[in-house]
């Protein structure tokens, strides 16, 4: 491996778990009750609630990534573009699935409609697994751009 590849791998090793932790905090602690209840509603109020949630969620992710990488002395290995695009991908994919109807449509399209209908926890589990998969991609983007 080249020194650059090692640096990128180390940055990924810091950024991926940081985004995971920030996701848990931003999605559960930072999100307001109002946003949580309204973000899937139709109309402007639902879109605004979801946007508000995603913006506070992304702020949580940004503070965490900058704080952890600065504390580890590797902040300089990240580019502004990488952080911006990584967070944008995270935010867009988070917004789409948190509008709820896309989650239900995707679940049915992939053969998970029965589970969604039968298990009250299915929507939450599908939502979280979607977010975690995109967090991995976001972390890769963050450290490689």
From TrEMBL:
Source taxon at top rank: Bacteria
Alphabetical keyword list: Membrane, Transmembrane, Transmembrane helix
Entry's transmembrane regions: 54-74, 80-97
Pfam families xrefs: DUF3307
Name the UniProt record assigns to this protein: DUF3307 domain-containing protein
Lineage of origin: Bacteria, Bacillati, Actinomycetota, Actinomycetes, Glycomycetales
């Amino acid at each position: 491996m080249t020194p650059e590849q090692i640096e990128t791998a180390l940055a990924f090793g810091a950024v991926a778990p940081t985004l995971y932790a920030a996701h848990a905090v931003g999605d559960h602690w930072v999100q307001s009750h109002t946003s949580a209840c309204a973000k899937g509603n139709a109309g402007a109020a639902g879109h605004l609630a979801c946007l508000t949630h995603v913006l506070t969620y992304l702020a949580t992710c940004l503070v965490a990534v900058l704080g952890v990488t600065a504390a580890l002395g590797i902040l300089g290995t990240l580019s502004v573009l990488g952080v911006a695009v990584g967070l944008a991908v995270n935010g867009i994919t988070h917004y789409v699935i948190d509008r709820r109807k896309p989650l239900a449509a995707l679940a049915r399209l992939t053969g998970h409609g029965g589970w969604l209908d039968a298990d009250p926890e299915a929507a939450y589990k599908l939502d979280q697994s979607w977010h975690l998969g995109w967090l991995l991609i976001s972390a890769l983007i963050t450290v490689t751009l």
